[in-house]
Amino acid sequence: MKKIFKFLSFIKPYWKQVVFAMIFLICVVFMDLTIPRLVQRIIDEGIYKNDLTLVANTTLIMLGISVLSTLFSIGNNMLSVQVGEAFARDLREAIFVKIQELSYANLDQLKTSDLVVRLTSDISVLQQTYRMSMRIGTRGPLLIIGSIILMVTTNASLTMKIVPLLLLTLILILLFIWKLGPIFGQLQKKLDNVNNVLQENIAGVRVVKAFVRRQHEKKRFEDVNEEYTRIHINVMQYISLIFPMLMFLINIGVLIIVWIGGKQVINGDLTVGGIVAFSNYLMTTMTPLLIMAMLANVVASGMASAERLDEVLSTVPEIQDAPDAMKLPDSIEGRVELERVSFFYNGNCEEKVLDEINLTVEQGQNVAILGATGSGKSTLVNLIPRFYDVSEGRVMIDGHDIRDIQQDSLLSHIGITPQETILFSGTVRENISYGKPNASEEEVISAAKATQAHDFIMGLPKGYDTSIAARGVNLSGGQKQRIAIARAILLKPEILILDDSTSSVDVETETKIQDALENLIKESTTFVVAQRISTVLRADKIIVIDRGKIAAEGTHTELMKSSPIYQEIYDSQLGDGNQLSTNGNK
Predict the structure, then answer these.
(1) For the domain 416-492, what is the CATH superfamily, name and number?
(2) C-alpha angle with apex 75: 72 to 76, nearest 5 degrees?
(3) What's the average model confidence in pLDDT over 292-317?
(4) Tell me, which fold does domain 336-413+494-576 have in CATH?
(5) Which of 17, 19, 51, 142 has its CA 20 to 30 A from that of 272?
(6) How does DSSP classify residue 317?
């Protein structure tokens, strides 16, 4: 419950609307509590004494109160909706901004499907919790308190006979909330699993079809869907039990009033109008309890959602600027040094991904990193922009430990094409100029030409104004990679990292890209992660990574003489008469 209260800070900016909503609600409650007393007056003073004028006047008063109650209720609902929507909007933005702040290591632990559910379903649940709390959740207790006070003033002895029943009802509802809270937590986790499988299948539907795995994926979805359904049925069964039990208690209360109150009417201790008013107050007390039981369903779900949302907001980014972090100058040399660098994921020091890496790259050098899948190539280049912090050793740029540099300042000097090509919905031009929105038309075209993307872009329906679908599904793998490289080199960074960025490009196109890049970024320090030997032949320095260690270092010619691992890779790809010269041409 305390997690729910923690999110009240998002409602604080709208306290004026909340105050007016509460005032309207109090007015509605006051008018609702007035009606039974007026009914008592009609019976005892009007009908019983044959005073039709009093009956008519009191009826008109009740009608006026009903109209005012309706208007105040509408005002409360409108303000509650406004606050609820504003709350959800601000919370979504806060969660989104927090996700942008998280480090790679944090994002490795939080699945995309989990974050999507939290940004959508969990926020909607919490929004509904607050909105209903401002209406039913506040109105119910006020009605209960007001009704009990009026019951006491109507007949104190009869009220004491009802109090145990009210306490029993309250205990039942609290038990209901306590029991359902953990179940709703399980329900949201099962929904995460459903979304995870669904997202994977939608993204990989072509692979599913290609490998004829439709039945397998259907079974996988059925399993998680069945688990979600099972928990949901469990929740609904609890809900189906609580309402009949509460109705039974309400009926018991009515019987108590009729039996004991009837005796008092016969003895002259209570009027007929009094027993009618008392019955109405009992219903006014018990009905909100019934509604509160329904709200308990929402509160229990809200508690689970608040816990999950708080988990995101409370996550501390593993990569943070030091208090005295410095800014790099507008122009840097781009000299990169790795000193005794070791790295392991999630604190598992027994499984080092990189082990004692020592590497110095001078300004303007083109360094290629070669190695088997899983050898640590991508991890190594991810340490340079500080996507992860080294476990041991240090990474330096121009003699500065990158942990002493502000992250935004560091990244402003680095251009990156990640291993997984990511494009955003928007135009081709917007994707190329993503890192430099104010880039001129000439700069965008120059970058596209350098990556051999200009010709195919001009062949698109609207050229550079052609819309790219989400994740670039309307482009081929090679086309997406060339746009991604253009996006990186448009920045003209002092340090450029190309992580297996031409794997989907044919060798001839790759050679043309290398020719163009040599002139365009000749002053940039470049790191090229590659699987193909043809990609690394021109490099000033080739690093061969094997099991997290530098197995060999040198130029192509040097490694062909000194490194058996490099020779093996070369022979497996370019041997048997398919050798390329060091300039990259057959």
Answers:
(1) P-loop containing nucleotide triphosphate hydrolases (3.40.50.300)
(2) 90
(3) 79
(4) Rossmann fold (3.40.50)
(5) 142
(6) P
